[in-house]
Write a structure and sequence with these properties.
This protein has helices spanning about 5-20, 40-55, and strands at about 25-30, 35-40. The chain is of the alpha+beta class and about 80 residues long. The protein is globular, with a radius of gyration of 13 Å. A two-stranded antiparallel sheet has the order 1-2.
Amino acid sequence: MVPGSGLAPLLINLRLSQVDKKLPGLRVVRFADNYCAFAETLAGAEEAFWCISDAMAAVRLEPNADKSRLRRNANAEDLFLIDG
């Protein structure tokens, strides 16, 4: 599949919908292929990070190492910027 093709977003959403189903109880926003989880504590954020990572691994995906990290006091509007 060619990145940027018209079929790519549909197939990405179909694949990630399987990940979404494995995240009940988490406060998560997904924009295209970017997940943003919200937690009140650092421990909760770490748990959410690993829960999302495990859900992705279940469908043979993995988080982007350059973009995946915990952020404190993040501006939610900046989280989905390229290389945010």
